[in-house]
UniProtKB/TrEMBL annotation:
This is siroheme decarboxylase. Residues 1-80, 167-242 form the Siroheme decarboxylase AsnC-like ligand binding domain. Its EC number is 4.1.1.111. The keyword Lyase applies. It is an enzyme of class 4 (lyase). PANTHER family: SIROHEME DECARBOXYLASE NIRL SUBUNIT, TRANSCRIPTIONAL REGULATOR, ASNC FAMILY. It comes from marine sediment metagenome. InterPro entries: AsnC_trans_reg2 (IPR040523), HTH-Siroheme_Decarb (IPR050684), NirdL-like_HTH (IPR053953). The keyword Metal-binding does not apply. GO terms for molecular function: lyase activity. It catalyses: siroheme + 2 H(+) = 12,18-didecarboxysiroheme + 2 CO2. Pathway: Porphyrin-containing compound metabolism.
Amino acid sequence: LGYSSTLVAMDIPEEHIDESANRISEHPGVSHNYKRDHSFNLWFTLTLPPGADLEAEVAQLSAGAEARRTRILPALRVFKIGVELDLEQGANVAEKRRPSEQPPRSFTEEDLNYVRVLQQDLPLEPTPFQGWAESLGIRQRRMFVRARDFEASGVMRRFAAVIRHQKAGFAANGMICWHIPEDQLPDLGYRLASYPQVSHCYQRPAYPDWPYNVLSVVHALNRKKCEEIARRMSQEIGVDDYV
């Protein structure tokens, strides 16, 4: 749809972290704003509409947050995205499939109308899809056909209920950042993505003060479990340079 998105890491003085995080969270394009255990201690996702200057927007946020350092970390390669949590086993049970790498497609105004409708929250009523179809001037069946086409082509990642994983008992999530040799990519990236506890796994840029080029997010019942998962993954893939 022409939107640009990136992960951003900031080094914020500890005494300002709460105030800075609140300022960042006020931005309408910011989501997934977390404090992490590192000198880069504030991490968030920023999404901007077509035509916006992402670097300028990040610079403005950085100044407002009084960040000492800021690193822009767009996804260079997606190894895995999506989480389906097993409430009994305490693991992510999403199907182990590689993300679609199909090229971007052009959109008609009709396509955009479908997108605007399908991205809404589903109304809590007996026939929630009926109103959507009527707003598009079509029958439900035709709307479902287009939705399946969007999903198959990767335009729509998924259509699903959003669960607040902390309230479901998954109180901890950890972002494990790996320094993986270039000659072992993308193989080790996909291997990390194959772990059931991993919900997101990306290759991202490295910097002199941030050498970690693959980031994976794990979900578990508590912090100790997250740390155990990280140690096991490190041993099994043969990479011990991680945070």
